[in-house]
Amino acid sequence: MDEARVYLGVDPGKTGGAALLAEGGGIVEVWRWREGKDPLSSYNILLKYAGYKSIYSYIEHIRLFPSLPPAILLNTQALLVNVGQWHAVLDLLRIPYLQITPDDWQARYGLRHWRKRKARMDALANQAQVAALTSPLALARHLWPEAPLRTQADDGIAVALLLADLARRDHALETVTGAGKQAVLPLTTRRGSRRRN
User: Fold this and answer.
1) Contact, 115 vs 123, CB < 8 A?
2) For strand 5-11 and strand 17-22, is the pairing parallel, antiparallel, or unpaired?
3) What pLDDT digit, counting tens, does each position of 131-166 carry?
4) CA-CA distance, 43 to 95, in Å (whole number)?
5) Is residue 86 within 8 Å of 100, Cβ to Cβ?
6) What's the count of helices (H) and strands (E) in the chain, helices before strands?
7) Cα(98)–Cα(167) distance, rounded to whole angstroms?
8) Which residues of the chain fall below pLDDT 70?
9) C-alpha span between 173 and 184 (Å, rounded)
């Protein structure tokens, strides 16, 4: 177990989730985040992997926009609490992490603006065109057919799987090129600064 590496992806949303992938991309473990109800359960799950050589992790970056309507602001503030709890769990376990914005990770998978495209395709009512469109959930179902992604509420686990896979691919790129962190596209680091290429 000392030589193994695992890759963690975290979607801290209300119906978020977490996923651990092995170096080959296979699922090690996935679980749903229960909106701030029990951060200790995520801590205990990750504690099982403390003997692994390395855990590389990406967490979806959440931003607060003060100009939003109050109802949306309240929902976003609850989301920020989730993010804070995840940061605490990862910090306590000394697991380094990068925050990656939804725009950045979706662009890396070719999913940028997928919701707008899907709405336009749905309006056309052409099922062949709609089927060709992919969402994070559809992509994760395709990449990991064995994953527990049965309902739309499993979208958080799907996002976590994609983030873990992105961490795995970025780490492989750094290892193969020997270029260190500069080989990775600019992402927000845990302290909020931007990487420079």
Assistant:
1) no
2) antiparallel
3) 445 789 989 998 999 999 998 889 999 999 999 999
4) 11
5) no
6) 7, 6
7) 9
8) 1-3, 35-37, 51, 53, 64-75, 113-133, 175-197
9) 8
* Distance from C-alpha of 154 to C-alpha of 151, rounded to nearest angstrom: 5
What six digits make up the tokens of 193? 């600064």
Q: Which of 136, 171, 133, 142 is nearest to 157 (CA)?
A: 136
DSSP 13: S
Domains plus CATH for the chain? 5-189 (3.30.420.10)
Distance CA 45, CA 6 (A): 13
Residue identified by tokens 């993010």 is 83
Pairing of strands 97-100, 17-22: unpaired
Residue given tokens 């992806």 in the structure block = 9
What amino acid is encoded at 46 in this protein?
L
- DSSP helix/strand/coil, 61: coil
For 170, counting Cβ atoms within 10 Å of its Cβ (0-12 exposed, 13-18 middle, 19+ buried), the class is: buried
Q: How many residues does the chain have?
A: 197
Maximum pairwise Cα distance, the chain: 53
129-148 burial, b at 16+ Cβ within 10 Å, e below that, comes to: eeeeebbbbbbbbeebeebe
Q: Token digits for 89? A: 């769990």
